[in-house]
Every structure is written in C-alpha cells, then in structure tokens.
Amino acid sequence: MAPFRFELLHQDKKSRARLGRIHTPHGDIQTPAFVAVGTQGSVKSLTPDELKDLGVDVFMVNTYHMYLRPGMDVMKKVGGLHAFMGWNKPIMTDSGGFQVFSLARKKYLASDTGNQSIKIDHPLVKITEDGVEFRSHWDGSKHLFTPKFSMELQWLMGADIHIAFDDCTPYPVTFPQAKKSMERTHRWAKESLKAHRHLRGVKVFTSEVSGNHYQALYGSIQGSIFEKLRKQSAKVISGMDFDGIAIGGVSVGEGKKEMVQVLDWVTPLLPKDTPRHVLGVGEIDDIFELVSRGIDTFDCVQPTRLARMGRLLVGNKQIYKSDKSTNRKFEIDITKKEYSKDTKPIDAACMCYTCKHFSRAYVHHLFRVRELLVYRLATIHNIHFINTLMEDIRSSIADGTFLELTRQYLYHKPRG
Length: 416
Description:
This protein is of the alpha/beta class. The chain is 39% helix and 16% strand. It folds into 2 domains: 5-300, TIM Barrel, CATH 3.20.20.105; 310-411, no CATH class. It has 16 helices and 16 strands.
C-alpha cells in the first residue's frame, strides 16, 4: 500500500461534495476536513492531547515563521516537527510564500515587464524570477526564499504534506500581471517538484530528521480572478506529478463571489483521485461552498483568532438579534454587555468542555478581566464547533442529506 494516497469513499449525487480519506505515514485524515493553523508550531493555547480530543486530524505549520524562529538548526537537532511539538498525527507545512508576499501587501508596480525583477512598493520584499528576497520582520536581516530552499526547509521539518513554492498573486491585479504571476508559479512548481524528488534521496533530509517517512507535495494553482488563467493553471498543475492540488490566491482580498467563481472554474478540471486543498479559507458559510464544489481540506486561522478576540462560533438560532457587533451569521461577541448575566452555555447544542461547564456570563467575565484561561476556553469551543460541523458534513455526504444540512445551517433565522 502506498505511504500516501487519497481514497474516494463516496460522491454526493446532488453536488460535487465527496467523502474521502487521506492516508499518511502519521495517520489518516477524514475528508472533507478543516485544517487548524498552528503558525509557530502550536495551535495557540491548546496542547496536542487537547487537539486530539477535539478531533483534530491535521494542522498547518508555517514554514516562514519556523525558519526565522526557532530555526532549522533546532529542527535538525530535535528530529523535525513531530518530535519538536509532541504531535504524532499528520502535519502540513505551507511554502512560506504567502507570508513573504503578505509583507508587501501592495500592488505590483506598472513597470512589471519582461524578465526584470518585480519591485514591490515595500521595503521588506523584492520578487525576482529566482525567488523572493525579504527582510525578517523580527530583526531586519535579509533572506532569500527559492523553490529549492522552500523544499529543503519543509523536508527538514518533516511534515507529511508540503506545498510547492508559488507566487501568491495579490488582489486587485490586472490580467497581464496575474498572467506573469501564474507563469512564475508554474516555473516554480517545476523547480519545487525537481527539488522535492532529489531530497527524497538525501540522508540529512530523510532518516536523520523524519525517520525516512514519505513526504507528499501539493502543487498550487494561481491565476487570480481570471477564468482563462485559472483554467490554464489547473490544467498545468494537474499535469505535473504532484501528490495533491492546492488552490491559492482566493483569500487575498477578493470577495466570496469571486472565490466561488474560481472554484467553479477549477474543480471540474482536477483529477478525481487527487486530494484538493484550498489555502486560507474557513468561514462557516465558505465551508459549505468549498465542500459542495469537491474540496477535501482547507486551512484557516479564523476560528482560533476569533476565539482570542471573544468572537465565538454558534448556530444561527443561538444568536441574539440585538448582537449586531460582528455582522456575521455564526458569531457572537461574548465581550458585549448583553452577555454579562446570560447563564446559558455559549451554544446550547455544543458538547465541548467549555459549554458543558461554563456560562456565557462566566466567559464574558473572563474576557472583561483578561484572565488567561478564557483564551483556552474560547479556542476549545471554536475548534470543537468547527470539527463537529465537519463530522455532520461528512455524515450528510454519506447518507445523501448534504444539501439539507446546508439549508439547515445557512438559512434559519436568529432567535429574538
């Protein structure tokens, strides 16, 4: 049996939603699955055992941040991410590209022509055909990420799934600029794949760090919001020998309508026997859009970030009409005064540790007095909410009720 493979278990008859399983050397990932984000080697405030209890199969660690701190010397010494973090289940690492590009956050200059370097109007980043030169946000030191170097970093960390180094196209962007960015992504995809294959045979990147376990590589599709480019990128990346496909550039400023359009263009062109991942998307309504279009996994910082802000995930019917603070269907802002005497749990239907033991009033109190415990309780709740939703989605695909579940979640009204 292959050390990494995707098993398609069931295809929904009324949508492109599908039920599957990704087999990795550190365990299986039941799909569709939400991938929690552990940017600096942890999902903030939670232990590995708590993550397992919450049903987390896999989480994403950020290459850029781990490269800067603690650094690859530490990764070599401890034997990779699994040993470093005390986590024996699957890990994904991104290429580091998005974080590097996010340092720029500004449009390409109009002088983006020929094979000249693309000079971005920001002192921290310069993109060339070879890679990305940037300065650390910690100390200003200069670094260069190339496709080969990104692969070396990810192999040293020993994750189960890597993402090829890509040019994360900003938004808004013109068609010519998006085309150049996409073509660069395709060139870097070839270089990433070449380096990845080579590293499988290099001892320092296998047995000394990862126990010689198989490390999979996903290629990244780009092309911004342009149909012609997205379809071209889907065909090019799918035609390469990647273990999976990642769809990037759908959470860099464009709206939900544009994201859905991109998925409608891309997913019909992807091979059915290959796992599909969307980078950086994970709001509740987005999840249903992703799953209904045949996406298997997706990562997002939002549930844990919202938790630390006091914005807790709930079913629509658990929201007070008076809570206008978030403008979102599935969130309450527990820091608001209206929850100060509310003795109900955060969500009446939730069976997480927080909801079984504490009231909205208590969680509100902890936020108001800035007690550290509250970040843990809030994160436990939000992660549990998302993973319970994913369990419900997987069950609904299996029994043919996915569209009914979608209507149940998205279209009931908040209570008064």
